[in-house]
Design a protein that fits this description.
Blueprint lengths: L5 E5 L1 H18 L6 E6 L3 H8 L7 E10 L4 E6 L9 E9 L3 H11 L5 E9 L12 E5 L4 E3 L15 E4 L2 H6 L5 H5 L4 H4 L3
Parallel strand pairs: 2-3, 2-5, 5-6, 6-7
Antiparallel strand pairs: 1-9, 3-4, 8-9
Helix pairs in contact: 1-2
The chain binds inosinic acid.
Inosinic acid binds next to strand 5, helix 3 and strand 8.
């Protein structure tokens, strides 16, 4: 692995502090309401779990999963919420907004269901990569265009359980070996998986 190919960009403490601030903002804005937090699986799960514990309101939590297909990034709902969203104040919880295609379609789908309102809280915003302009009412951090891992974000399903957020400076390293950063990320206990044993 080349030195500096994998670097921590947002620490656990910084994540905690920002999530607290977002929770306080949402608490103030939704005073007297009972919002439904809808996490977009799987990337948002860590953020959502931390965020909702910083919201001092009666609230529900639900999830949906999306599949993206085609070059235009068309989106289908692969798993829907259990809660009916009609008439509800919906807070979409996203890990990261990149091109904005996923979120744009999702907001349209939710609006078509007759929600009372829909707002988005996104932990990360890759604003420079945006293709479609989409509102993000609550934003954790604006980030560059490096590929990010950890705190829910994955590479081929792994690294979601890192407690902080890491940037991959050379994606080719992961393409060659998806577990290339396992020891850096998890310490020596990851060595067996890292060496393929
Ligand atoms: P968009 O439709 O291009 O905005 O894509 C957003 C989705 O792409 C996110 O919900 C993530 O699943 C994925 N994504 C975008 N950038 C990253 C990244 O840096 N790391 C991990 N997943 C990412």
């Amino acid at each position: 692995m080349s030195a500096g190919a994998f670097i921590e960009v947002v620490s656990e403490a910084q994540l905690h502090q920002r999530v607290q601030q977002l929770g306080a903002e949402i608490t103030a804005d939704y005073e007297g309401e009972e919002p439904v937090f809808v996490g977009v699986l799987k990337g948002s799960m860590v953020f959502l779990a931390d965020l909702v514990r910083q919201v001092d309101l009666t609230a529900e939590v639900d999830f949906l999963a999306l599949t993206r297909f085609g070059k235009e990034g068309r989106v289908n709902i692969a798993m829907d919420t259990e809660v009916s969203l009609a008439g509800r104040h919906v807070v979409v919880v996203e890990d990261i907004v990149d091109t904005g295609l996923t979120l744009t379609t999702l907001r349209r789908l939710l609006e078509a269901r007759g929600v009372a309102s829909v707002r988005t809280v996104a932990l990360l915003d890759k604003a420079t990569r945006r293709i479609v302009d989409v509102p993000i009412e609550y934003r954790g951090f604006e980030v560059g265009d490096e590929f990010l891992l950890g705190y829910g974000l994955d590479w081929s399903g792994t690294y979601r359980n890192l407690r902080s957020l890491w940037a991959v400076m050379d994606v080719a390293v992961l393409t060659g070996d998806p577990l290339a950063f396992a020891v850096t990320a998890y310490g020596s206990s990851a060595r067996a998986a890292d060496s393929g044993q």
